[in-house]
Specification:
This protein has 182 residues and is α/β, with parallel strands linked by helices. It contains 6 helices and 7 strands; from the N terminus they run H-E-E-E-H-H-E-H-E-H-E-E-H. The protein has a 7-stranded mixed beta sheet, sandwiched between helices. A hairpin with a 5-residue loop joins strand 6 and strand 7. The longest helix is centred in the N-terminal third of the chain and has 29 residues. The termini are far apart. The N terminus is likely disordered.
């Protein structure tokens, strides 16, 4: 019985420390300004064009795919969230940026052509030089931080993918309505 109690106490301490670390990471992340790469490509409906110096000046949901993700896997699931992206962008008045930051030559060769071939009817942005990581020092490798809402000043105000659960969607809607009113 003592072993069970000791294991339970150790588990509670471990979970408590993990939650504290996560809260600290969230606070640190939300205190930074997110800066977009100065040079990107935009791919929409199979067409590619260059985009220079895009700034965040309205509430923006950023769906970030970087070196921690399988880019080709993420591309294959873009259509799963298309209606959600369109609703956020068109109905809710929040810009959506789907951003792939490429860090290997293989990705630079493969990712844009796969997105182009997908003929995805929503803009997808490509950071071909991995500039996002250089401009956003200490960007978390934890994938839970790779979908986030920023205010018009580029500061994260919500972390998580609002399309993944109904609870996150509700929190996202509340957060967005508060920053749009300001």
């Amino acid at each position: 019985m003592r072993k069970v109690i000791l294991i339970f106490i150790c588990f509670i301490c471990f979970v408590g420390c993990g939650n504290r670390d996560l809260r600290n990471q969230m606070r640190a992340f939300m205190s930074r300004e997110i800066v977009l790469p100065s040079v990107m490509s935009e791919i929409c409906s199979g067409k590619i064009r260059g985009v220079d110096n895009m700034v965040i000046d309205v509430p923006t949901l950023i769906m970030f795919y970087g070196k921690e993700e399988c880019s080709l896997c993420a591309i294959s699931h873009l259509y799963d969230d298309l209606s959600g992206f369109q609703k956020i962008n068109d109905v809710m008045g929040c810009k959506v940026i789907i951003l792939f930051s490429l860090t290997t030559v293989e990705e630079v060769l493969d990712v844009p052509s796969h997105i182009k071939d997908l003929n995805f009817p929503f803009p997808v942005y490509i950071d071909e030089f991995g500039e996002f990581y250089r401009q956003n020092k200490d960007f978390p490798s934890d994938r839970r931080f790779h979908s986030f809402l920023v205010d018009a000043d580029g500061h994260p105000v919500f972390i998580g993918n609002p399309l993944s659960t109904e609870k996150l969607w509700e929190i996202f809607e509340n957060t967005l309505s508060k920053i749009i009113i300001r």
